[in-house]
Amino acid sequence: MEEGRPRKLVKLDHDDSQQPTPPQQDTTMAESSPVPEPSTAPVETRDNDDNTTTATTTTNNGAPSDPTDETAPMSKRAMKRQRRREQWEEGREQRKVKRKERIQARKERRRAELQVAKDEGREAEFRKEHERTPARFRKGTLLPLTLILDCSFDELMIEKERISLGSQLTRSYSDNSRAPFRSHLVVSSFNKLLKQRFDTVLAKTYENWKGIRFLEEDFVEAAEKAKEWMVVPDGGRFEGVFADKADTKPEDGEVVYLSSDSPHTLTELKPFSTYIIGGLVDKNRHKGICYKQAVERGIKTAKLPIGEYIQMASRQVLATNHVVEIMLKWLEVGDWGKAFMEVIPQRKGGTLKESVSESGEPQDGEDEAEEEEEGEGEEDAKEEAEAIQEANAVAQEQEQEEQNEAVEAKEGN
């Protein structure tokens, strides 16, 4: 029968081009060999709807495991930070009440001071000194100059540093709105985690701010757009320190990135020019990154002449809003020494130099408040809340003033 025929032997003179048939595995050996355990390596699966690939980790029993183990123990520092955040959130309503009380107390104090000024015959002087922000904004002069806050370093900062940067941006807006000579103010690369915080935690209050632009584009594209914004007369007037520069042409302007690592020193601010300030709070972990980025993009660089005018008793570190305020003050007084002395915090012990000696420079957006590790989260959050409150008050006052003007214009017609 066919079943009883023996298997043919392989010929010894077989052609070398043909490969011998591999011997069949003995089923008895396969059954007795140990079965390997299931692998815990990620198994790749594909979603038929959107063709996206996901990785699932399987355990020894074949069930998928969660890659984020919620039962992992937290470090003591992480627990402290979490506890501080929880305490901060619990006290939110209480802070609102205290804030209203402070506002009411300030109003009452202002009324009392006004009454004293009336009695002393200096009411006009008092009202001018305490003029509201919308009136200052309306009377303030817009100059053909742009300040860009470069926020492209979002991924290099941790949460508390982004909170600190957020408060610095807010104060920069408030300072520019109140300045007698203000600039075009731009926040570039506003498209990452910082924007997410402004949209969620801060409830998009920045959308009501006036006199500032938030752009997703980077500082190079923002600087190109600024050339159109600064066209006179709508883009600014030649007044103050620019009064004798009316013959300046738009093509005479320049784009300069401020960096402490630059070999060049800024001597003056020029019409139709754009000055870029790095929005980075990183405790100097990424030193030189602003300068490197500017050089790679072909942008001029310069540093503020702090070391030529001021002798500092501590580190020469400036926050982003301090740099903005110094430049606004220079537009007002035209003197770097006076600008530095009026803006730089007194705790730094800065004194004017009689002559040029040691050179110094500001840091790229580094905030001196970052010195302390413990407890700085609450301080940053408190500072941010106060800055946001101040900026929102400015925006609300401006909006109310515009509405009043619209009503007056309608009644006049």
The gist of it:
Monomer. The protein has 413 residues and is α/β, with parallel strands linked by helices.
Topology of this protein?
Elements: H1 27-32, E1 43-46, E2 53-58, E3 64-65, H2 76-90, H3 92-119, H4 123-129, H5 133-139, E4 141-150, H6 159-178, E5 181-188, H7 193-199, E6 212-214, H8 219-229, E7 255-258, E8 273-278, H9 289-296, E9 300-302, H10 306-309, E10 310-311, H11 320-333, H12 336-343, E11 351-352, H13 376-412
Parallel strand pairs: 4-5, 4-8, 5-6, 7-8, 7-9
Antiparallel strand pairs: 1-2, 2-3, 10-11
How many strand elements?
A: 11
Distance between the termini: 118 Å
Percentage of residues in helical conformation: 40-55%
The helix count comes to 13
Biased composition (Low complexity): 51-61, 388-397
Function: S-adenosyl-L-methionine-dependent guanine N(1)-methyltransferase that catalyzes the formation of N(1)-methylguanine at position 9 (m1G9) in cytoplasmic tRNA.
InterPro entries: MT_TRM10-typ (IPR028564), MT_TRM10-typ_sf (IPR038459), tRNA_m1G_MeTrfase_euk (IPR007356)
Catalytic activity: guanosine(9) in tRNA + S-adenosyl-L-methionine = N(1)-methylguanosine(9) in tRNA + S-adenosyl-L-homocysteine + H(+)
How does this structure look, described?
This protein has 413 residues and is an alpha/beta fold. Among the domains are: 90-130; 141-355, Alpha/beta knot, CATH 3.40.1280. The protein is built from 13 helices and 11 strands. It has a 6-stranded parallel beta sheet, sandwiched between helices. A 3-stranded antiparallel beta sheet has the order 1-2-3, with no helix packed on it. α3 runs antiparallel to α4, α5 (133-139) packs across α13 and α11 (320-333) packs across α12 (336-343). Residues 14-69 and 355-378 have low confidence and may be disordered. Residues 1-17, 85-94, 102-115 have a biased composition (Basic and acidic residues). Monomer. It catalyses: guanosine(9) in tRNA + S-adenosyl-L-methionine = N(1)-methylguanosine(9) in tRNA + S-adenosyl-L-homocysteine + H(+).
